[in-house]
Design goal:
Layout (H helix, E strand, L loop, with lengths): L3 H5 L3 H21 L2 H12 L5 E8 L3 E8 L2 E8 L5 H4 L2 H11 L5 H21 L7 E5 L2 E5 L2 E2 L2 E2 L11 H17 L3 E2 L8 E4 L2 E4 L6 E2 L5 H18 L6 H7 L12
Antiparallel strand pairs: 1-2, 2-3, 3-5, 4-5, 6-7, 8-11, 9-10
Helix pairs in contact: 5-6, 8-9
The protein binds adenosine-5'-diphosphate and magnesium ion (MG).
Magnesium ion (MG) binds next to loops.
């Protein structure tokens, strides 16, 4: 028979745990949903993009991705934090692009809005080239609404976090997607890793494309080579017979202009 007191009052550990959760929740709300972001979310809700934000799928220094509910199903909502931390991880060639985009009057929030818009634009370009990426639905200020990649409301895991059933098939599929990115969309991802590829029903879906650059860019070749080296190692560990050179060739690398002397 439990102590009747315990039925009425949560135990001390439960209270501590509740307070911890509450603090964590508040921290999340404070960090992401500053006034401007709340207004942006409100605007997107008014537009009918989604009805509510359900929970964070992933949060990091630069932003977070949330599951949201809409009338027709789920959406993924990516929110970039208004602050300068994101630019610490952004390579100089992207900063150059942002400065040009935003102009001399650009402040940090404008640069973040331009960055968010860029992710929306790149996703649109990749969809037209039939590369498997989330469908972008809308973007307003630092908030991007896109297709939710998942099954039964559960987000698809990044490739790094699961055991692939058929690594050979995923390899073939991923290199095909990446080749389309180079040959049809004329873009190089620029931050390709098993964390930026989700696996949905055994098939790869490429995400996190804001830093993608044109295949004409002087760094394009070098970036693809770097990603090819990392991914070749990843797939070799899973028993796929490949090499950085093979991965680079399978993804359209040879079509890129030779590196320019800088
Ligand atoms: N469209 C999506 N559907 C489901 N989960 C997503 C989607 N986009 C991102 N995620 C989840 O959020 C994480 C972070 O997203 P990502 O775009 O890589 O942002 P970051 O810049 O934080 O790396 C991903 O690893 C993935 O787990
Ligand atoms: Mg990422």
């Amino acid at each position: 028979m439990p102590d009747p007191e315990e039925l009425l009052y949560p135990t001390r550990t439960e209270r501590v745990e509740d307070r911890r959760k509450e603090r964590q929740q508040r921290k999340l709300v404070d960090e992401f949903f500053d006034h401007a972001t709340l207004l942006a979310v409100g605007r997107l809700i008014n537009q009918g993009q989604f009805q509510s934000i359900d929970y964070p799928i992933s949060t990091g220094k630069e932003g977070g991705v949330f599951r949201a509910s809409a009338a027709g199903g789920f959406r993924a909502v990516k929110i970039y934090r208004i602050g300068n931390t994101i630019f610490r991880h952004v390579p100089p060639y992207v900063i150059e692009w942002l400065r040009r985009e935003v102009g001399a009057m650009g402040n940090t929030s404008r640069m973040i809005y331009a960055w968010t818009r860029r992710e929306h634009t790149v996703l649109t370009q990749l969809r037209s080239a039939e590369v498997r990426v989330p469908q972008p639905y809308a973007c307003f200020r630092n908030v991007l609404v896109m297709e939710f990649i998942g099954v039964d409301g559960l987000p698809a895991p990044p490739m790094q976090e699961i055991v692939l059933q058929d690594p050979e098939a995923v390899y073939a599929d991923l290199t095909t997607q990446l080749k389309r990115m180079v040959v049809s969309a004329h873009l190089v991802h620029g931050d390709l890793s098993p964390y930026n590829v989700l696996v949905l029903e055994d098939r790869p879906v490429i995400i996190d494309v804001a830093q993608a650059i044109s295949t004409n860019h002087p760094h394009a070749r070098e970036l693809l080579q770097r990603d090819a080296t990392n991914f070749a190692r990843f797939f070799r560990r899973l028993g796929v017979a490949t090499s950085p050179k093979e991965f680079f060739e399978a993804t359209g690398g040879p079509e890129l202009p030779a590196e320019m002397a800088s």
